[in-house]
Amino acid sequence: MSTATELFQSQGYNSTGINQIIDEARIAKGSFYYNFKSKEELCVTFLSNRHEYWMEKLKQYIKRDATSQKPVLTAFDFLFIMNKKEKFRGCSFLNILSEISSDNMTILTVIQGHKRDLRNYLSALLDKQQLSDHVYLLFEGALIESQLFKNQWPVEKAKKIVESLINE
């Protein structure tokens, strides 16, 4: 799984073949197929693991900053750190979404579940519920734009916009 994760994140889903994963993980082909029936099943497991990892890290980061009066702003700080850590690779879920066919409901459902959980979590951090979709869309936009420009300015700008919306 760690080999597949590394390859999916660095090369993309379509550019990563099962044989490459098997070779780089130094496992037998039979072992791979014993655990995963297909590349799609491997992708679903990757995304499920990524969801658990990402949401847990986000929650821990926000919990660690107990002094924050506005924890939703801390979520943008987390995004800043993840961009640095992952070298502006962006969102694994949206990266894979751009590579799958439009009728791949199996993977799409996992991606939608992650985004729904993220949206709900960000909403729960807000006192002003009418802003929750604004915050979610700014968060997602900042993530994509920072990947595009390989720069933190979209995260910084989105955080300032959210702060001004919260303070109104």
Tell me the layout of helices and strands.
Layout: H1 2-11, H2 18-25, H3 29-35, H4 39-64, H5 71-85, H6 92-97, H7 105-124, H8 132-149, H9 153-167
Helix pairs in contact: 4-5, 4-7, 5-8, 5-9, 7-8, 8-9
* Sheet with most strands: none
What general form does the structure show? elongated
- How many helices in DSSP terms? 9
Helix content: over 70%
Assembly form of the protein? single chain
Task: Describe the 3D structure.
The protein has 168 residues and is mainly α. The chain has one domain. Helix content is 74%, strand content 0%. The protein has helices at 2-11, 18-25, 29-35, 39-64, 71-85, 92-97, 105-124, 132-149, 153-167. Helix 4 (39-64) runs parallel beside helix 7 (105-124) and helix 5 packs antiparallel against helix 9 (153-167). The mean pLDDT is 95.
